[in-house]
Amino acid sequence: MSKQEVSIFWFRRDLRLEDNVGLYQALQSKFPVIPLFIFDDAILDSLPKNDARVGFIHVSLSKINTQLQEIASSLLVKKGKTIDVWKALIEEFEVKEVFFNKDYEPYALQRDTVICELLETNKTMAYSFKDQVIFEEKEITKADGLPYTVYTPFKNKWLEKYKSMAPVQEYDTAAHFSNFHKNRFAFPTLKQIGFEESNIKVKPHNLKFIANYQDIRDFPALDKTSYLSPHLRFGTVSVRKLVNWAFHKNDVFLSELIWREFFMQILFSFPKVVTQNFKAAYDGIQWRNNEEDFKRWCSGTTGYPMVDAGMRQLNETGYMHNRVRMVVASFLIKHLMIQWQWGEAYFAEKLLDYDMSANVGNWQWAAGTGCDAAPYFRVFNPEIQQKKFDEKGIYIRKWIKEFDLGYGKPMVEHAMARDRAIATYKAGILK
């Protein structure tokens, strides 16, 4: 019996049907399109069984599947080693074409190379597309073709290029939904994938505060952030729609989206930054790396209310306000002299919006070891940060229930820690 000829669209960091470049292109195929998602064992095996991000992916896929069922189609969800899943699909179907959107992280690039080699061996055409960014890889470079390593000129070039084409094209995938493969694949439960519900949930995104974003973004007690970051990370929103909208709404908010692409370009061009300092001159710094100090930082028991509130918010919700992220990162690195990789790994475990390029980029920014980073002698004073951005202690009291009952003493004195950090950096920076 001959196998059915099909095309496959492979969902990854683009969990939506609307304005999805790779999906739009797939639906132009002359073969019916099977929409596919793979729960990759190489990623899942290192996660706790109640990982909230897996739950969010599952919920997002369920929404896609419901939409597809309305047009007599459905989502094919598989779990296993990616290469094994693709081998099985090739056995089951006559896979003529595969479409997917690019992912720029080191593991994803390696995975995609292996899968494309398999597809080529099978004489299956593979097509990849830019979807999660406005500009990718080498689209924003200096005059000599080298990548920017300083944000402001990158931003200026980015804006110049965007303005020349604004608005960026959005893709009407719904106009071609008739080309989805007509089938009812069984949609697995979270338990069948080997996971369970988490008490931590991804919040809906909210753009109603963006008009005066620059005036409110640094005050965590206001709770007037967009909550967009997990949705951008997993692609439940279109970056094209968002940027086309933000361009006319708020320059500061748009700049945050450009920072996201800057860090993605840095990761793509300099993959060593995942584990190593961008500035090799900082490799000689002698870190304390005290495990007990690290545990106190993780648990939010340092005695510095702004730091502790931030860490408790992270541990309880998977979120942390951006201003507070800078404070807690600076504290770990500069006050406790614990290298940034420890903090980066903890954030990677806990953050709902964990995105490798941004996480690594921001931690190296705080450490002074990254591109266009804060200078090493900039040491945030957590008490001053608290007075500036949470003067009435509203944010702190929300997360530190015992705050008014006599809060603990700081584990390290600020002035001493600052002097120690600056001296250690000076001694360790290679000439």
What are its keywords?
431 residues; alpha/beta; Rossmann fold; DNA Cyclobutane Dipyrimidine Photolyase, subunit A, domain 3; 5 strands; 46% helix; globular; FAD; chromophore; deoxyribodipyrimidine photo-lyase activity; flavoprotein; Crypto/Photolyase_N_sf
- Give the fraction of residues assigned to helices: 40-55%
Strand content: 5-15%
Strand order of the largest sheet: 3-2-1-4-5
- Continuous helix count: 19
Give the CATH class of the domain at 273-428: Mainly Alpha
First and last CA, distance: 70 Å
Q: Sum up the overall morphology in one term.
A: globular
The CATH architecture name of the domain at 273-428 reads Orthogonal Bundle
Main sheet makeup: 5 strands, parallel
Determine the CATH topology of the domain at 273-428. Answer: DNA Cyclobutane Dipyrimidine Photolyase, subunit A, domain 3
Find the count of extended strands (DSSP E, 2+ residues): 5
Low-pLDDT ranges: none
Our Rg estimate from Cα atoms comes to 23 Å
Write down the overall mean pLDDT: 96
Family: Belongs to the DNA photolyase family.
Domain Photolyase/cryptochrome alpha/beta: 5-134
GO biological process, one term: response to light stimulus
InterPro entries: Crypto/Photolyase_FAD-like_sf, Crypto/Photolyase_N_sf, Cryptochr/Photolyase_FAD-bd, Cryptochrome/DNA_photolyase_1, DNA_photolyase_1_CS_C, DNA_photolyase_N, Rossmann-like_a/b/a_fold
